[in-house]
Write a structure and sequence with these properties.
single chain, about 280 residues, mainly alpha, 3-stranded antiparallel sheet, about 5% strand, flat
Amino acid sequence: MSPTQVVSSAAKQAEQLRQDGNTYFKKDRFGAAIDAYTEAITLCPNVAVYWTNRAQCHRKRNDWRKVEEDCRKALQLDSNLYKAHYLLGLALLQWKEYAQGIKELEKALDLCRGENPKSDMVEIIWQDLAKTKYLEWEHESTTRTWELQSLKEACEDALIEKHFRDASQTEGFLDEASTSNSEQLKNLERVFRKAVEADIPTEVPDYLCCKITLDIFRDPVIAPSGFTYDRAVLLDHLHKVGNFDPITREPLYSPQLIPNLAIKEAVQAYLEKHRWAYKTDG
């Protein structure tokens, strides 16, 4: 048997093992699936999808360290494999490495949208990304609030201490000193209230929200009618309800949709400043 035939035979065996692994995975037999994918990797170690398939099994077993290892190997072979970026992002979040985890999820979302914008994975990745960014904000917000409260109490104590010290040295001017101290405490309260305003959730502006879901835009597209919708939501409407604009009822087909880059940039800017808006019900 020639070297070429040996390679071809190994590739066929590896592909059959991948299919066997997929069958085991669908039946929740994750141990058997891991064994099948491992054999496929042994035969053809340079096929990235074998590594991501095995990583999926490790995820089901909550073995996140092995998920991370397999995904990093897959990305060495194919840096544009969105599933590898996605699973790696989830693994990094287990160690609370929010910054790197978010970076991987964002990469996965961009690749998935480019590869198949209609895929359910776009929504799944977005949900995980939004939840992660919200958790990151929540963690930072809690820390920031505690630090501000501690600083505020220290400043209040210092002002009160100064008031009593000054009062003991300025007999006959107690009313004036008390008034001054009261004003200083009020000013301090205003300063610290202003400092926490960015962390207080409010309503998202209407122009940043989809007309159908009323949620903040994820991937805004503009229809010929001039109305902007979230891409996934509008495509779902066109598929399940009919090929017409949800508001104007004019005929509408998916090739007519154009990304609304201005709104997308506005949403990104708003979310950077108000990360509490990443909170979803999903």
